[in-house]
């Protein structure tokens, strides 16, 4: 799975919105800031010029990255309701020996965001969950060691 990138429909929409924002708002703002900085004269010691140039470089890199992801990624629409975990599945798990439930959405690497409980299908836990269903136990090899989870719910 690591050779191919995947996106959920929501992830694609989010990246398209970000790309639009970068191209239509952020890039023109920085181009204007850069033009204003150049008009101030000596560029060698012009902090505004160097800052705008650096930010513009970051934005150009991000635009290229997003365009590449959108062009090459397989968009997975999770319409199946067969209970088998795949990209787009919302999963509730419990680590063996605890009663605390953890909730995750399995997404492609490009849209993973652990703070939003979106984990990549390539992450140790995401990869371990793929292809399993409610009631099964899976073992994830994490940097902290192997962890066994029981799958409580799949949406």
Describe this structure in words.
This protein has helices spanning 9-39, 47-72, 124-129, and strands spanning 6-8, 74-76, 90-95, 101-107, 118-120, 137-142, 145-154. α1 (9-39) packs antiparallel against α2. The chain is α/β, with parallel strands linked by helices. It starts with 5 loop residues before the first strand and ends with a strand. It is elongated and about 70 Å long. 41% of the residues lie in helices and 25% in strands. It has 2 domains: 6-76, Transcription elongation factor, GreA/GreB, N-terminal domain (Helix Hairpins); 90-154, Roll (Chitinase A, domain 3). It has a 5-stranded mixed β-sheet. Strands 1-2 form a two-stranded parallel ribbon. The longest helix has 31 residues, at 9-39.
Compact overview of the structure:
The chain is of the alpha/beta class and 155 residues long.
